[in-house]
Predict the structure.
Amino acid sequence: MSQINVSNLTFGYEGSFDNIFENVSFSVDTDWKLGFAGRNGKGKTTFLKLLLGEYSYQGSITASTCFDYFPYTIGKEDRLKPAAEFIEDLKPGCEQWRVFCEMDKLGLEGDLLYRRFDTLSFGEQTKLLLAVLFSGENDFLLLDEPTNHLDQKSREMVRAYLKEKKGFILVSHDRDLLDGCIDHILVLNRKSIEIQSGNFSSWEENKRRQDEFARRENERHRKAIGKLREAAGQTKQWAEKNESSKIGFDPAKEHDRSIATRAYIGGKTKKMQSRVKQMEKRVEREIRQQEGLLQDIEEIRDLKMTSLKYRKERLAAADGYGLEFPDSGKVLFKDLDFEIIQGERIFITGRNGQGKSSLLKMIQEKATGIPQFGKGQRPVERGELKTASGLVISYVSQDTSFLQGSIREFCRERGLEESLFCSVLRQMDMDRNQFGKNMTEFSEGQKKKVLLAASLLTPAHLYIWDEPLNYIDVFSRVQIETLLLDYCPTLLAVEHDIRFCERIATGTISLDKI
């Protein structure tokens, strides 16, 4: 067993106002199955890149192990090739027979290795690259959101695989995955970093208790501050009253006083003033303690949305509907029957590559009349799919790669009020200093929050969300859960976070049964 030692780590991006890490120190055993959680933009991916030596930093990071990082970066030219032609570039020394073994464990057919990479679904691409990653030996794996775009069955496969493996850091916001395969967790809080033994749920319970204790202590400090200020105010008034009585008196009314009384009153006043100063110092000390108590508390703020009411209850319906690619003989699904009724929250389930995203795009295309498929990518329809006339759709794509330019330009293009849009992003815990950056510099979670915020500010009859929680931190997931339960919009979604689905869904459309 060896360790990864981090000592006095300080790092900030050039041009940034604040450091991401400030004099951070901790150690990680290389046989730990370590989960890594925290808010979007707090430095999780950055830390993995620091381990890989990609950035310069102050302090030291020492490790006696080799790292391998996921996800791999696939260039534009390589995306036009079969994966078999470039996996050696991704993982030097990679042997195809080992990749085939891992593909089988992840439920992939071997021919995917020889199909053009950009023709694979997001989920198929992810699992194929995971098979390449897992084909090595003795590497300490740095896994950055490995289950994004994976269906539930595939997530269970990855979870079971990681449960049997030692030596990795897993960045994930999937609560079910973290609980199923880690034995330690590292969390980036608002003002601190902590490592605990256990899984995400055990950390979450500990965090809840700590926050409750901090709130109780905070309330105690507030009461103490109020009493101290009241006492200080009274003592100060007494001191000022006594001070004003030192000089001058009426012999007829105060026959027992003399000039010598002045020294006595002065001494008494000095003691009172000293007591006031001591109380003020105690107030300042209590305030500092109060501020320190609350700096790490995660406050989940309520979001708002305005959905439109349609004149009819049924918004969309399918009768014997199917999608296929006749040239390749691939049938995505067939004989699908469903209705989408106003107020329902329907989740589409199915394996990767089975057509979940294609179905969402078809519904959007029929409702808006705007083509949703690129040239040569549109499947052939079978059966019937109808949408209500004049239906307004708010769509969140699983792809964020098209986001570029400034927040101001994005709002102008979407017809959104910039100040209101930024306010929603702030409620989703995005720092103000991000608003002046190009969106290409955002983390993947921050990009997804941009799309979600735009959707929430777009009044619609039907919200179509394609894997909306990819890269979104746990706290924001809870925030979105609360929003959907409070406002009950009509929602059609593809999402693989099982805990989110169990809490939100009023019904499902399963493509696995077709």
